[in-house]
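Design a sequence for this backbone.
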């Protein structure tokens, strides 16, 4: 399967071929790698070049439906990366394939406690600006705005506990 992916401003081409139970051939911008995966609770353990990487992936919905986009929150080493994947066949000919338009809801990528709210509802934010801090697994994770816009909804308060996938805030 082939996708076009974006995290931040970096856009990449990704091809994945299943090689067997939990094993995949992955080509990222022409660089081919073998990856082994296994689930452990809410985490996915990826073995790449004899290195194990723990990731928590939460589907956050769809971006531009016409481009076949899916939006994910990927947490690695306590840092949350908003990732958008698009089907390149549906996205062909669209110059701004991965631009998120309209409201974008950010969800918790893992269970935790809301440690801080860094903005108020109605505030204008820039892409990447911290909005909510979630304490999970004894680490504080600052969740950034996935795009520039206005925070139209804050659904949590400091001290509240949240489950993986719980809506935290919306940026329009």
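Sequence:
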């Amino acid at each position: 399967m082939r996708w076009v992916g974006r995290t931040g401003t970096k856009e990449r081409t990704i091809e994945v071929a299943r090689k067997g139970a939990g094993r995949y051939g992955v080509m990222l911008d022409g660089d081919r790698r073998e990856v082994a995966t296994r689930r452990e609770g809410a985490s996915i353990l990826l073995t790449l070049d004899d290195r194990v990487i723990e990731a928590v992936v939460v589907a956050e919905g769809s971006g531009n439906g016409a481009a076949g986009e899916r939006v994910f929150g990927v947490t690695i080493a306590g840092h949350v990366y908003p990732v958008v994947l698009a089907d390149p066949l549906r996205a062909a000919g669209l110059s701004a394939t991965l631009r998120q338009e309209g409201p974008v809801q950010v969800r918790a990528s893992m269970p935790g406690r809301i440690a801080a709210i860094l903005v108020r509802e109605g505030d204008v934010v820039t892409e990447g600006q911290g909005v909510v801090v979630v304490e999970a697994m004894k680490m504080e994770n600052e969740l950034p705005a996935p795009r520039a816009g206005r925070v139209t909804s804050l659904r949590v308060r400091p001290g509240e506990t949240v489950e993986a996938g719980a809506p935290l805030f919306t940026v329009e």
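The longest helix spans residues 88-91.
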